[in-house]
Design goal:
The protein is α/β, with parallel strands linked by helices. Helix 2 crosses helix 3. The radius of gyration is 13 Å and the shape is globular.
Length: 126
């Protein structure tokens, strides 16, 4: 998995863009590393986007395990989280993840613009 991120402090937003085959553990580890970066302070919204040809790879057991971890983190540090996945498999896996978390401020979208509208941010660069 290759990823890049952009922090937009004025919108309290971080945009994480992933490409290639994305393992769920890698995605969560990457988010964990980012959350410890100084520029992450003040971030209240997260937009995670998979490139069009990328696939999220995870079993339902992995998704449930990572959802429990993220759920515990969100109780301490509430964030609004949007996932963008264009292919059906990744979209469905992100929806499963969102359901396991049982957190009202998480949603899954097909386009970056839909995610930005829901997050109430201008479309960021990145």
């Amino acid at each position: 998995m290759a990823y890049s991120y952009v922090v937009n402090n004025s919108q309290e937003l971080i945009v994480l863009s992933c490409s290639g085959d994305v393992e769920f553990a890698e995605l969560n580890n990457g988010l964990g590393l980012l959350s410890r970066q100084p520029e992450f302070n003040g971030v209240k919204k997260v937009l995670t986007e998979l490139a069009g040809d990328s696939f999220l790879r995870a079993s339902s057991t992995e998704i449930e395990r990572h959802a429990r971890k993220i759920s515990a983190v969100l109780k301490k540090n509430p964030l609004q989280i949007a996932f963008v996945a264009q292919n059906d498999l990744s979209y469905g896996l992100f929806r499963m993840f969102a359901a396991y978390i049982e957190y009202e401020k998480i949603n899954v979208f097909r386009t970056k613009q839909e995610a930005c509208d829901w997050l109430q941010v201008l479309e960021p660069v990145g």
